[in-house]
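Quick one:
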Amino acid sequence: MDTEKTKDWEQFEHFEYNRQYLQNEGRLKKLERSIRDHGFLLPILVNNEMYIVDGQHRLEAARRAGVAVTFIRYDIPTDQIPLLIATVNSTSKNWGPSDYLHMWQDLGRETYQYMASVMDEYGLQITQLLRLAGIPCKMSGSFQTGQLTFTETQRQRLADRCKRVRELANFSEAWAEFNHTKSFVNALCYIVVHPRYEHQRMLEQLKDQVMKIQRATSGNEFLLTFTEIYNRKQRKGRISFIDRSKGKDTPRTRRVDYDEEDVA
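Output:
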């Protein structure tokens, strides 16, 4: 494959879902300075229809610097590029769970559209949704490559957990100043996925202990208080929402009550 060179920056094609990443102004400015100082060193990868597989930031930075770009054409069908983009970015620090979600959502993958709708309905972040769904936040290969699916049973279980999180978050008006903060909602997500958690018991325990929940600086602080409330005056079924196995208080991070086949 030969390397080509051009100043016709407009001939390159972007996928619409990928344009949002050009909003990273800080990164673009750094790349522009580097290109001005050292030239355009790493070729852009495109297919025969000039759709960018890798290098859209470098292209934009080169355009701003007025520098010609080098590029390499690969014989890749345009409909396969999203999967290749996902693979190229799987080890990139610039791509996180929300990036993969938005890409596959924009490309019409029903599961990802469903996940986005659940996030909107319950005001959740993507990492919180993945935790409630029992998907490791480091992301499984099927999530990255657009192949993740849910059965109806899994969707119902996710919906039940989301409702429990919302019910806990809205339990008391006294919590209004912090009940939608990331640390508080994170704590609630850890609570409701605990394999031995009993939701009705928590609601009953909160009735006369609601003021124990105060604004905290971390999710761990909330979890410690909720653990105390949940176990108060209880001899049986005492549990901890904090994992002390490593000698410090950290939330449970293992996959909870899903088996391997639960998430397709």
